[in-house]
Amino acid sequence: ALFATAHLVPRLQEKGTIDLYLSRPVGRVPLLLSRYAGGLLLAGANLLYLIGSMWLIVVWKTHVFHPRFLLSGLVILFAVATLLAFAFLIGVVTSSTGVSLMGTYALFFLSAILMARERIAAAVSTETAANVIKGLYWILPKTAELGQATVALVAGHEAPERLANIHYFAVYGSTALFGAAALTLSAWIFSRKDF
Description:
single chain; 195 residues; mainly alpha; 11 helices; 81% helix; flat
């Protein structure tokens, strides 16, 4: 989904393209948000095709009707929406598709690594570094936890042991706040950018 949508903002800001859009009676923020909505629609269509096709094959081969498998697509779409908002922020700042993709994937993997924040914080030498690691965990999206939640949803299990101590609302809420903040900041920067 990110490969299919990371170019939406950098290409929008190319000379000629941005001039055409800005000559229309559409504000900059609605323009950017419509590109974001289009990216989400594309990602949702990709997910529907992938998960829907896999679900139909499983139903056809096993005759097992498993609706939780389809619901897992919503969790994945939520994670993609958050990462897409960050990709838009990088795209607005750098106007580069490559940097937008690399930065978003770096965020994805850093967030997954920070799931082990307690062990990492115990390994660092200062209390300040440990607090920075714990703070980064709560600021960045929870990609690993969302992955575990997807697997638990499909398997029909309770929350994984590691998530039992963390309230689901905190995981989803902090991830949603990160996405909303990234999209708001990208809209603010885009509205003030000189083309």
